[in-house]
Amino acid sequence: MKIDPPSPNLPRGRQFFAELKRGNVYKAAVAWTIGAMLAASAARADEVTIISDLRGPEGPLYIDGNLYYVGWVSNTLSKWDGKTTIVLNKTEGCGHNGLALTKRKTFLLACTNDPGAILELDLTGKQLRRWDTDSNGKKFVGGINDIVVTANGGAYATVFGPYGDPPIPTGVIGKILYLAPGKEKWGEVATDLNYANGIGVSPDGKTLYVSQTVSNCVLKFTINTDGTLSNRSNFALLSVLVKNKNDSPWLGPDSMKIDSNGNVYVAQWFGGKILKISSDGKLLHVFEIAAGDGTTNLAFSPSEKDLYVTVVKDPKDQLAKGSIVKISNVK
User: Fold this and answer.
1) What is the DSSP string of 8-45?
2) Residues 6 or more apart from 109 whose CB is under 8 A from it?
3) pLDDT tens readout for residues 71-119
4) What residues have CB less than 8 Å from 331, skipping those under 6 apart?
């Protein structure tokens, strides 16, 4: 802001008030600048890095006082007890990605390396079961990206899509798979998704949400009584809710979690943020994440007061170096 000095030709009284005004404007300008800086700092003041030096952080779950998370580059499942971290599982070639807790207190783990796989592990990381094909014997071409378990013990999983070299979006082959309660095989319940990613189910079990990363949108489906899906529709167009941070073709929703009130929290890959969206598609809050642009997922603390966010510093980094940060939730 440019402030011109008072004219020396002004009468003494008017010159005095001009000097006074000039000083007040200057002070106001300084105060405004400092206030803006403090506000910007305050917006991220509560972001605390709790785990660093990770490779492809994803899939956080907070269970019984422990934070579990995976790394798709390190091929690991780990547990953090608040002080130390131990690796529970390392399966080369898996590309550990989505993680879900079953009603039996076991994990379902998404292997994102193409062709994908789904592993069932106990809480110590021991493999109990592995699926490499669906009910028709087809491999999970495109890789398994995320998994969610339903209240009745069923589970849904997403098939992502081809990720070549260079990594540009190509075939639209994304799918949603369903494992019915008590069944042994996964079956297709939705196809032709544009890089299906994060997946979640509403608290009442009637609505399924799924991220289409390349389309930068979240879809929703009605869950039928037999677990099949219907009424496919757009739920949230992220480019309408927030301004695009860049023009990457991979800018879009990644994994998600849904709170007890039915609000959807979506991590935006290449966007460096978490969007909190109401069940009717309204943007409630944007959590800007300072630790990086590659926000991938989040977990709730037991009271949903805090969020544990997995984030890659630079989403273009092939090693996907990142961390887990803790931030406060908002009502």
Assistant:
1) TTS-HHHHHHHHHHHHHHHHHHHHHHHHHHHHHHHHTT
2) 59, 70, 77, 89, 94, 96, 97, 98, 99, 118, 119, 120, 121, 147
3) 999 999 999 999 999 999 999 999 999 999 999 999 999 999 999 999 9
4) none
User: Which one, of 258, 264, 252, 210, lies nearest residue 234 by Cα?
Assistant: 210
Q: Which residues does residue 131 pair with via DSSP β-bridges, in sequence order?
A: 118
Is pLDDT of 321 > 90? yes
- Residue 45 — very low, low, confident or very high, per pLDDT cuts 50/70/90? low
pTM of the prediction? 0.87
Q: Is 187 helix (H, G, I), strand (E, B) or coil?
A: strand
How does pLDDT run across 192-239, given as a tens digit for each residue? 999 999 999 999 999 999 999 999 999 999 999 999 999 999 999 999
Sheet containing 107-111: give its strands across: 96-101, 107-111, 117-121, 127-131
